[in-house]
Amino acid sequence: MKIEDQNGRTYLSLYDADGAWHGYINANSVSIAAGPQGGWLADSGYATLTQAGQPIYQGFDEQAATTSDQYLGQTFKITGAYHWFDGTVYVSLYDGTGKWVGYMAAGSFTQGTNAQGPFQAHTEWVSVAHPGYQIWKSFAFTHYTKAAANQVVEVKGVYHHVNGSIYDSVYDADGHWLGYVNAKAVTPIADPIGQMKAADRYVTVTDKNAQVFQDTQFTKSDSADALYQHTYHVVGEYQHVNGNTYLVLHDSQDQLVGIVSAKSVAKANGPQGVWLGASGYVTLNGENTLSSDFDLSQVKTAGSTVAGNTYKVTGQYHTFDGRVLYSVYANKQWLGYIDSRKVKLVASQTGSWISKTGYFTTTKKGEPIWRSFFGSSQSTSSHYQSTYQIKGQYHAYTGATYYSLYAANGGWLGYINANNGAFASGPQGAWMAHSGKVTLSHTGYPIWKGFFTNQVNTTTKLHNKQYSATGEYHHFNGSVYYSLYSGKTWIGYVNAAATTPTKKSGWYSVNGVLKYYDQTKAKYTKNFSLVYYSQLDGRWAGKSYGGINFGKTGCGQASIAMIVSGFGHKITPSQAADYSHRYGTFDTPGEVGSAESDLTKVADHYGVKWQVMSSRSQLQSYLQKGYPATVCLNLSGGVRHIVVLTGYSNGTTTVHDPWSGLLFSGRHSLSQVWSMLSWKSDNTNMGASAAVVYIGK
User: Which Gene3D superfamilies match (predicted)?
Assistant: First the structure.
């Protein structure tokens, strides 16, 4: 129905296929069709007939002239479309020559934008029968390679081009894509894998990504991962047209495992399989016999000779019967083969945990106690001369033994090298030397002949008696026990808490004076007395070191000689210089005068302890106690000069100048002295400053 308004415009009343009215529309906005198919509308693209039994119409009388079966797989060009009254879209199809094929309903074919149509799966092996054809790199048909006569390729899919040709997507024997070739150029190979030939040999699968097939149709198996590094019996082989050899593998039960490419395996000399790389360590016991043959019947190394030691695994064999044999070495010496089920392979050279009981006393400072081997650690310094319980050990490949230590509260301490302490069978720990006398100053303590098993006396009965403590034990319980002697008579063990050490021989500060205490005489026998030396003394001033006269540069050596002599080791400046020139840097090539280390080396050589000062207040504290010091000062004119300091009172100290007292000597404020310190690297190469205090022993 149409309606005209007062202005002469015509409107059409619109109904859909179900009879539902949609409204009015200006007649100028539509095209009037000849029938329910509607008007022709331009369209583009390509249709590939991939569905069987789909109707193809020659007209709109709803009678199909033919079906897609006649053209199945072919690609046609879409030039236009009709949107039927019932909502169906029909496209108009033409072949590559421009010949009209008919109408087809949208959805009854595969539509795309490419003239070659969609990829269609198809697999077969073919050979090139007509070498004149190109192998195209794309469907732009611009780049290509020539197909070689009798070239064997694998087809993995086809395209039905609108131009009427079929193009195979081809690959070489190694799976590399070559391009697209016209199907007319090739001829199918009926039996690409050929007939099986009998075989009898052993191989080991060495390709982790090996493809395993269930049959000669190359049906993939799900068990490919399980075959890696396993050894199998080859009972047959196929020579494929692609040049590859495929092997039929059987297991030790003579059951088919699968078919694999010969490229995925390595040929073995026997059922032991091939040598495979391995890296790790095994710790052996007395039952771990190593063999020279793969049947493990010929003994090469007896277990008794390797028990408790860790060795390196450098290779392995995965045998046909399912065993894994490790090849074991001690450095470069081959020990033999061992069944992997008898040992534990670990990555660390420390090997595996071994049962061990006992106790361990640390005797070294600055050594690591590992929380994990060679990772995080703590120092033995904070556990020095402490005893811990051993609850296992590791005998490393390097020969080192590591104990696993536990404290008395049950907490794990870590791993320690056995060389950093001493083993003990009992909780008293290891005996350690002790030199000195002690007084039994506290009553109520037992004296033992054995640790807590045979009490022979008490400190109450022996109160205030003095004995020589010749050894000590640092017990697992945290107490220290002395081994006491009276002359050559052993008294027994006593808790150190019951004793007071008798003063040892050595230098002590007594009311600001350094005094030497002689333990054997139980009294002070001498005082520190500085022996003054001048570097200008004719006895050594002209002596040459490295081409330089001592009188010019010997201030440091004269100063340290004063101090060492003051402690009772009578040496001259030239003796000090001889030592530091030979073993240090004094007047050596490139060095003039004494570095701080040249002073401390001489002190160490003569048994005098020393300490570098970190502050003026620290230096003051030592000087007040009577300890001497050396300082390197910056004097006028860029001169650096080493002098000796002794004593301190009212803010001043006494300066002893080895330049015959002519440069800087007498009483000076310590503040002034500290302000004049040299901060050059060679004057501070042993610590925080150029001031060193000497303590004696």
Answer: Cysteine proteinases (3.90.70.10)
